[in-house]
Specification:
alpha+beta; three-stranded antiparallel β-sheet; binds 2-amino-4-trifluoromethylsulfanyl-butyric acid; Creatine Amidinohydrolase; 15 strands; about 260 residues; binds cobalt (II) ion
């Protein structure tokens, strides 16, 4: 597979898909409270995407090679769940941290974004992990410009994360996105400067670091989708979809509720 270069029409449609995905996160925010089930969050998002946005929840029945079809419309990864947490009867409780990952298809184009949510009062460690992961994503985003490499992106995320005493999950990565949910290139969240794919104006991909408070090792759950930390330490993730522009980057997954970019040194 080769890396798509998007034209003005593709980019206009990706801006719309990206905004819609982000607006689902805005919509669901007030429902992420103690006592709600992850299934309820899934069905609220499903109905909002289908009935209000007139879009398609991309995860539903998504079946990449070697996987059973994904049974729900969003991913809900709680505490030590790293990614692809399948919504179910789990009730959120005070102190939980949860990643909600939303991908919508509008007019044939995908928008993919995730945020961390805190249920009630969470531990200092959980807050710090969410915060460091958010900054790690942004440190990666700030590397994006024509002529930079994906190795620069991965290296920036990895060095910042490890300096703060956390670890980067290696088995999952960001990805090209557009007419397909997952396309080339793979966007690793670790790596070496000045290596790998050279970025060009018009490329669109996600940056979505998964960061563990403990060791980086993962375990797959028997449901075929949910991925957890092997040592049961907390894990966090944030995700944006980015366009490479002539001068740098544009975040495509933005809406009224998108958290501000952090001040970085
Ligand atoms: N949204 C995830 C990503 O960022 C992919 C989820 S695939 C699913 O790439 F099938 F689990 F939904
Ligand atoms: Co993604
Ligand atoms: Co995602």
């Amino acid at each position: 597979m080769s890396i798509s270069i998007n034209n003005a029409d593709d980019i206009a449609k990706m801006r719309i898909a990206g905004k819609l995905a982000s607006e689902v996160l805005d919509y669901i925010t007030s429902f992420v409270v103690k006592g709600v089930t992850t299934d309820k969050l899934d069905s609220l998002c499903h109905d909002y995407i289908v009935n209000v946005q007139e879009a398609i929840p991309a995860p539903l029945n998504y079946a990449p090679d070697g996987h059973t079809p994904y049974p729900k419309s969003i991913c809900t990864s709680v505490n030590h769940q790293i990614c692809h947490g399948v919504p179910g009867e789990k009730v959120l409780k005070n102190g939980d941290v949860v990643n909600l990952d939303i991908t919508v298809i509008k007019d044939g184009y995908h928008g993919d974004t995730s945020r961390m949510f805190h249920v009630g009062e969470v531990s200092i460690q959980a807050k710090r992990l969410s915060e460091i992961t958010y900054r790690a994503m942004w440190i990666g985003i700030k590397q994006v410009k024509p002529g930079a490499t994906l190795g620069d992106v991965g290296h920036a995320i990895q060095t910042f994360t490890e300096k703060n005493g956390f670890s980067v999950v290696r088995e999952f990565c960001g990805h090209g996105i557009g007419k397909n949910f997952h396309e080339d290139p793979q966007v690793l969240h670790y790596g070496k400067p000045n290596s790998g794919v050279k970025l060009k104006d018009g490329m669109i991909f996600t940056i979505e670091p998964m960061i563990n408070a403990g060791k980086r090792d993962i375990k797959h759950m028997p449901d075929g989708w949910t991925v957890v930390t092997k040592d049961r330490s907390l894990s966090a993730q944030w995700e944006h979809t980015l366009l490479v522009t002539s001068t740098g980057f544009e975040v495509l997954t933005v809406s009224a509720g998108t958290p501000a970019a952090p001040e970085l040194p």
